[in-house]
Amino acid sequence: MNKILMIEDNEQNRYLATFLLEQHGYVVMSAYDGPSGIRMAQEALPDLILLDIQLPAMDGYDVARALRKITALHATPIVAVTSYAMVGDREKALGAGCNGYIEKPINPDTFVSEIARFLD
Which residues does UniProt assign to the signal peptide (predicted)? Predict the structure, then answer.
């Protein structure tokens, strides 16, 4: 059973992603902001982290960099899920330590398969 931590401040985005993932047997935990997401990641050691870039208090780039400094999370895939879709945003997310990048709004038909490829 794969555990996924979603760090996302938007309630509707959290609800939709959680619903889709739980329908496919994933266990989903969520954090509203970067600091609580980092804390939760250290405690729960999820198999995958879904990370919004536009967060209150601390942006997703800083969260990704902080997560990458935690030894126990070095191999944990981090996937940016963001509405930032300008030229260079994907590279910026990958440069901060993310392994992948999914644009919002998420596509309910392909979201779970996009996530699953990071868990193989």
Answer: none
Q: How would you write the pLDDT of the chain (120 residues) with one tens digit per residue?
A: 899 999 999 999 999 999 999 999 999 999 999 999 999 999 999 999 999 999 998 999 999 999 999 999 999 999 999 997 788 899 999 999 999 999 999 999 999 999 999 997
What is the DSSP code (8-state) at residue 71? G
Gap between the terminal Cα atoms of the chain? 12
Say which DSSP state 106 is in.
Answer: P
Domains of the chain: 3-116 (3.40.50.2300)
Closest by Cα among 17, 9, 53 to 33:
9
Query: In the prediction, which pLDDT does 15 show?
Result: 97
For residues 116 and 111, give the distance between their C-alpha atoms in angstroms, rounded to a whole number.
9
Q: Peptide bond preceding 105: is omega within 30 degrees of 0, i.e. cis?
A: yes
Return the CA Rg of the chain. Answer: 13
Measured at the CA of 24, the angle between CA 5 and CA 13, to 5 degrees, comes to 50
